[in-house]
Predict the structure.
Amino acid sequence: MEKNDLYPIEEYMMTKNRCYKANKRRTPTGIQVHSVGVKGTNRNRWRRWNVNTIEKCPNAFIDTDGIMQTLDWDVRPWLSGSGKKGNANDWCVGFEICEPSKSRDTVYAAEYLYNCVVYLCTELCKMYDIDPINIKCHSELHADGVASNHADVTHWWGKAGTAWASYNMYTLRRDVAKNLGKELAPDLNVILRKGSVGEAVLVLQEKLGLLGFESGNPDGIYGKKTVDAVKAYQKSRKLYVDGVCGPKTWEALLADTVDDYDDGDEQKAEEDEKLYTVIIKHLNKDAADELVGQYKDTAVEEETAITI
């Protein structure tokens, strides 16, 4: 793992813990993000898990002093519990975030903890070639049917009026992907409507925000604000206005993303290439050639976008 002095790693292997002694090794394909659920703790409180009567154990704890590694990264942790469809511990490396007390949960503490999580997730993704889309918190894993029913980290991440308002699981996956030089690319070849939830909704919300439509803090829930923003966008592009994001709305949004770059921008070619890759993955090669090809040419008339 690449060393970073801002986020030091203390090795405190829990050699007496039952999870450590079980030594079940596998190659992780996902990352579990958990929080301890107890305000005002740091790593020292959790050193007491290093006894032979406890089997719960993450691969690491994170606090405002950095990272404390407790298991080898490829050792199966005991974190999420089981769901109806399996147990995320079987394929995920995982860690616990120590939640600061209310008085200490400042903007600076939140920024440090969040960036520490981004750093660790980035390094784990590099180490095991994990797709950032497979970084999930306890509540998301429960929704997938592979973990017990816990709210963390959604009970404090992204909460309005707090230092965590701008941080959520979507921003984490996006920032890790950016560190890896990748595009966060969930399945966009789906029809989204009111009541839809998940990563594709978060991407849609971000796209609408970038285009000047305020959809609120992205939360992955296709609610009234998102419906209204989609309708406003559809109306602006003379698409059928129904508040449902289908293929034509997706294609227009992707095309507008390319068209937004100024002619002569040094990053334009690189951004076009990234977008081309995303369209190839989620639509098809013909759509990619048509969309990116059209918008590389600044002479293309606006009417062309309306007919997509």
Q: What stands out?
A: The longest strand covers residues 30-39. The two ends are 45 Å apart (CA to CA). The chain has a mean pLDDT of 82.
